[in-house]
């Protein structure tokens, strides 16, 4: 069929080109080792902290944090859910897996945020940047996440780090997009007001644009976090530890019970992270 | 009056063309094509077309026009929020087009502040923090800027809302904050872009009065954009009327009402409540005057017959008003062969000064049969106000029978 339709047009060696590109990248071992070590150390710092804190204290801290963030409108339902959910994870003996997953999510969200917000600002400020970044973001978000794992392993080895890198690529677009959108949606009159009083570009950014874009920006962060959580199971295929590994193993053994149990633990973690970041999204006032 | 004032802002040949083909549009505009033709031929929109004007120190200069007339673009070129295509803006003689970004920031921080139609307040900041904004970005320390912001909020009459947020205040209150934010910098020039247009009529009148009040105390140079001629006439020391990117007429409110430059302005001022703007001096006519030191009853009677009036105004040689004489009394004197008018002069004549607005006189004019005498400080007779002339002036006819 192929040959009838396309006649004598030779097949484009796309796969071959990409292989060559990845192989070419591999020669920068020093650079990628450096990145691996850097990401690894952030990851280890989170993990070190979570291993240090006793489980009961961890639960108390989460509840206290929730209470503090929502101090102006108490949500007892969420507190009860968190308490029971975390107890369940403890009881099912998923605690360490949960903290590994949490570490992966926090590390990749943090990196996505640190890279994504400035990119979003750049995109809002520069028309050229927007034209270039838009298709790149579309690509990053729509390319099946599994595909990232292949070069990630080649460049960063196996373990947590390639999982984090794949998560960052997959999860960063919403932060960039929402930051861009938030800043572009700041009313013209406020920009004019900032300019007319003689603000510098930085003053305008930090005193007017970012505070007003905050709601949209935080919504982007929340989405990024949820997307990186969705990468947890996929990342376990290349050796990222955590709840994802349990699910992955259960799939291999056709073990529905353990699969769902680990899946539920992920759901609990997802809901807690989602509610906490959503509460941060709300604008808080002094009184 | 205004010729003695020094020039604060001078605008020369200021032009803004939006879109592509700017040079072609400029060329067409020089050939005398109008905004619509240029848009059709080049796709470029002429925002402001070669505006020339001067604004004097301490005046309220109203730039007036309907939407699309270019007034908002013009005011934004004065602080370079919009970069002009051509022309220059001089502030105290300094050409704003020749300064760099840093100097421009300095001018915006120190010399002029802007008040916006929809207030432009930062929703995430309290009232006090909003009022502090201009000082905050200049790096003024917290205590000083708080004190100045509070003072500015006091000036516009809204203290006690310091910790509220903008959306907790009514529109009128929010615009007071906008004004306070502008005043906190203590600028020399205030740019007010349709500042009161978003307010309901009562609030708007209130704010207009307050602005005049504040101006009385602070003597800023205020450039006020408006599409409401009544507002322009009320607060403007001078008014500039724009249409389709061009300046049509510049003058005092009276100038514009009494000598509209063309049909457009005439049409524009048709709906104005003239009674608030026209003064006794604008509508007074020349009365029949009898100089008591020179004229007797016969001359007085002849003059009254010639001008077909039944009342004459009696003055002395220095034109001081003594009273009026009625034709019937004069005829009686003539019959009695009495040569002295003094006995029949009625001294009870309603008087007013030249700068009294007609609106203050309307009631009295309709109640008294005798026309008002308009006198100056020295009690000299300047003219009289008859009902017909008042109604004519309110209807838009020029009062023409005054010398």
Automatic annotation (TrEMBL), chain A:
One of its GO terms (biological process) is glycine betaine transport. The keyword Cell membrane applies. One of its GO terms (cellular component) is ATP-binding cassette (ABC) transporter complex. Keywords: Cell membrane, Membrane, Transmembrane, Transmembrane helix, Transport. InterPro entries: MetI-like (IPR000515), MetI-like_sf (IPR035906). It is a multi-pass membrane protein. The chain crosses the membrane at residues 48-69, 75-92, 104-125, 145-171, 224-244, 256-276. The keyword Cell membrane applies. One of its GO terms (molecular function) is amine transmembrane transporter activity. It is found in: Cell membrane; Membrane. It holds the Pfam family BPD_transp_1. Residues 98-277 form the ABC transmembrane type-1 domain. Belongs to the binding-protein-dependent transport system permease family. This is Glycine betaine carnitine ABC transporter, membrane-spanning subunit.
